[in-house]
Amino acid sequence: MTRTAFRYFLFAILLACASVRLFAAEELSERFRDPPDATKPWCYWYWLGGDVTAEGITKDLEAMAKVGERTVTIPDLAPPLPIAGAWTTVSSAMKDSVVVQETSLTVPAGFGDGRRVWLDLGSVSVMAQATLNGTERPTRWMPPFAWGVTSLVKPGANTLRVLIASTTKAKPAIGAAPVLRTVARISLR
Fold first, then answer.
1. Contact between residue 101 and residue 89 where contact means Cβ atoms under 8 Å apart
2. For residues 124 and 144, what is the distance between their CA atoms, to the nearest angstrom?
3. Residue scoring higher pLDDT (131 or 69)
4. Domain residue spans of the chain
């Protein structure tokens, strides 16, 4: 390859790289001006007690939309579904500092329709990992011991397996009231 041909080749590569970088910069700039919905601000909105009125909710939602909130997540629109089945210890290891427990739960048809479903173990001593219907969720090392399970929970029989590990002398344990909770997401457009 002659020097001139090499220079043209090198120039063509640099030109291609510059156009790719320019395209990437323009795309980045456009995404910054109008980000995807998944990256837009949202808030987790809840209130204590029953001191809520329709007018108050409307004013709050309008105020949130005015300052740029795009989505509001509201917890516990429906009563939680208690996981009340008997827990069976499947295995125990390391002098009982790691315990795997399993239970079955029946989810009624229509539970969580149109809402996100969360598995909430409540209090756990000390860390936990949940597997619902064969799909493992990440380990939680501190509260809240909750996982999004919308795509995993199904109407009818479900199997929940929880690995609980304690790093102290305390026995690994799940709290008294594990539940499935629902939350709704409202788009403010």
1. yes
2. 9
3. 131
4. 1-34, 36-75, 81-182
Task: State pLDDT tens for residues 56-72.
Answer: 888 888 888 888 777 77
3-state percent breakdown (helix, strand, coil) of the chain, nearest 5 = 25, 35, 40
SS3 168: coil
Q: Topology of domain 81-182, per CATH? A: Jelly Rolls (2.60.120)
Please tell me what DSSP assigns to residue 140: B
Cα(60)–Cα(51) distance, rounded to whole angstroms? 14
3-state secondary structure at position 170: coil
pTM of the model: 0.63
Q: What are the angstrom distances between the C-alpha of 3 and each of 8, 9, 16, 97?
A: 9, 10, 20, 71
Pairing, β 116-120 against β 179-187: antiparallel
Average pLDDT over residues 158-176: 84
d(CA 105, CA 160): 8
What does the buried/exposed string (b/e) look like for 61-95 if buried means 16 or more CB atoms within 10 Å of the residue's CB?
Answer: eeebeeeebbbbebbeeeeebebeeeeeeeeeeee
- Phi, then psi, of 24 in degrees rounded to 5: -65, -40
